[in-house]
Amino acid sequence: MTTQTERPKPVIRLGDRVFARSTLIAGSLILVALAAVAIFLIVEAIPALGADTTELKGSPSNFWTYVGPLAFGTVWAAFLALLIAVPLAVGIALFISHYAPRRLAQGLAYVIDLLAAVPSVVFGLWGIKVLAPAVQPVYAWLTDNLGWIPIFSGPVSGTGRTILTVAIVLAVMILPIITAMAREVFLQTPKLHEEAALALGATRWEMVKMAVLPFGRSGLVSASILGLGRALGETMAVAMVLSPSTVISFVLLQSENPNTIASNIALNFPEAHGTGVNVLIATGLILFVITFAVNFIARAIVARRKEFSGAN
Amino acid sequence: MSKRIEVRDLNVYYSKFRAVEGVSLTIEPRSITAFIGPSGCGKSTFLRTLNRMHEVIPGARVEGEVLIDGDDLYGPGVDPVLVRRQVGMVFQRPNPFPTMSIKENVLAGVKLNNRRISKSDADDLVEKSLRGANLWNEVKDRLDRPGSGLSGGQQQRLCIARAIAVSPDILLMDEPCSALDPISTLAIEDLMEELKKEYTIVIVTHNMQQASRVSDKTAFFNIAGTGQPGKLIEYDDTNTIFTQPNVQATEDYVSGRFG
To answer: Which domains does chain B have, with CATH numbers?
Structure first.
């Protein structure tokens, strides 16, 4: 054998190099895209902050009083949707993963996935034409009988196109993604942990509580946040279903409902001009910040109990 | 505490397939019984029928009787959940609940059986169970740390502590040392000697030295070929099985000629 040079150069094959480069490019692209959007939003939003907003709908005194109700409506509608969708999604996912006979489970999973394929404009139409008229009598009954609970207080909306209806539509829209992710997480529960619980004399439900849910906890948070992100940004269905006004109100069944940022942009952008455009873009920046904050909080929640996650 | 197991003509099926055929044996209380045999001979399957854990697999069922101090495990109206509370089990790979602390792991079974337990009772039980599993001194300062942070052998002893915390009558161990190093294995074997004073212990093992070291009686299972059911070939005192077995197959197996 001939002697080699003192430090042999590591062999880098062409395929490795191409692959490494392409992953690097792909990874950078996402950062560039994010930065481009953020820069665009910030640059366009700056003129809005000091702008005269009296000509906007509701004649707010400045930008912050304009965006306040919208930001509130966005978070409130998404929160309500999540409140409806998550327990339902967990139930469906558990049924599919641990209770249903295999054939039924597969069919059901398929139907849930189909729900994700329905365009949001169709959900909007369904919300106006079917859901709102259908729930209006229920709302009337609620205000009559449970009106003493503040969020159900009257007078009831005559059309049923309230924030609660929007939340229900949003819940249906985010149900598939949460269910699909929750199902995957639940199916990954190690057999060992399930058997450990069963061998201790756990019933099926106790086994789910001891082994499946704790194991799936962080995945469930991620799934919920993904759903929440979609609910926060959903435009079409909200714009179609909601009859908006500029209020901050927790009341669910009245005709005065806070609008959401995305829906407000969609409704007002076609007629906006001058600084009005900047104001709308600035509200978009606020939405961006809200979504970012929500994701951040969710990650913090997941990371807090990392040691107990089962990943180690 | 510590009950006799009598098995009468037990057959185990996975749907149509007969996995274990015609097993009859009696296991005395306060003893360690080892099941040995080549892979796929049905010893683990048979072990799982002693606390009805085989029912976790869809289509699994048994024919025959398993009597625990005279009560049929498979009698009408017997709840498998209650059976498993009396017959504890330790698995091949340590499986503490990763989302629970060491303490919560020990109390996991107790909380199922008896939801309300005062804090001092719980602390006493944790200490007693962990001492019983020879783990107390190693973990007493970190009871609130996750159980998954322990070494493999410690995790397995934690699982034993979890199993004995509910004071079962019988303890089943399905190859409890096969994922452990020799030192940890020795610790578990010493522990079994201790536990024998209070529990009926049944252990499945691939390690014949282990069977000869720890058990009082040994059952040898074998299989005629793939697709054939596993059968109990010979069941006798461990000493007899390893020195002068009655059946040729047993001698071939314990002397290392196959398996």
So the answer is: 5-255 (3.40.50.300)
